[in-house]
Amino acid sequence: MTSDYSQQALRPVAAAPGVLVHPAADRRLATEHWLLSTLPAPGRARARLEWEQHDVAMLPLGALFSAVRIPRRLVVALTASTELAQLDAFLGEALDGGPIVCDPHHERYYAVVPASMPTTWHEAVDEWRTWDVDCLGRGSYLGVPRPDIVGATCSRATYWSVPMDSAAMLCRPLTVARLIAAGRHCLASEGEA
User: Fold this and answer.
1) Cα–Cα 20 to 30 A to 190, which of 4, 14, 76, 113?
2) Inter-axis angle of helices 72-79 and 84-94, to 10 degrees?
């Protein structure tokens, strides 16, 4: 079984003279191809099969993108909510629409960031680890949902809390760092109270 958008070609649509708009299905297809390009050709077929059967595929980090693991409790401290939909909306706004993968089973979020973040932010990352925040890069894998698996449901484990709007559209490292700093501050304040 293949998703509808995986069989379509990228076809821009003219919205006004001289302006091209790519439909959501085309952007999802481009995003799917970009995500799968982290794998050699034989691995792409396996990952597509994982997406079709399980909605999630294991993709290597550190080549095109990396991920910052953020514990749910840090986001809850910032929002005072435990509802996944509210946490997702908050993250979308706080990280300017940057893509976030949610693993509700393990109560973690993964901000999808540039591949260089683990090396350029290594000092901050060392400090973050005491809060169960980590920057995952080369040698790590992330369970990445199919691009159209958006929003939490009872039957779904991992999903896009904030979808990747287009191929290679990532969270800005400084924005992620600010979110982590604010969350740490809230958790520290709660600990003092």
Assistant:
1) 113
2) 80
Domain count, the chain: 1
Look at residue 5 and tell me if it is in a domain.
no
pLDDT digits (tens, 9 = 90+) for 101-152: 999 999 999 999 999 998 888 888 888 998 999 999 999 999 999 999 998 7
Task: Determine the Cα–Cα distance for residues 137 and 60; give it in Å rounded to an integer.
Answer: 8
- Residue 9 domain flag: no
Half-sphere exposure for 49 (CA within 13 Å, toward CB): 5
Q: In the chain, what are the helix, strand and coil shares in percent, each to the nearest 5?
A: 45, 20, 35
3-state secondary structure of 33: helix
Residue numbers of the domain that contains 38: 23-192
- 40-81 pLDDT, tens digit per residue, is 999 999 999 999 999 999 999 999 999 999 999 999 999 989
pLDDT of residue 9: 47
Q: Which of 79, 93, 62 is nearest to 171 (CA)?
A: 93
State phi, psi for 8 to the nearest 5 degrees: -95, 150
Q: Decide: 161 and 87 in contact? Cβ < 8 Å.
A: yes
Tell me the sheet residues that pair with 60.
Answer: 141
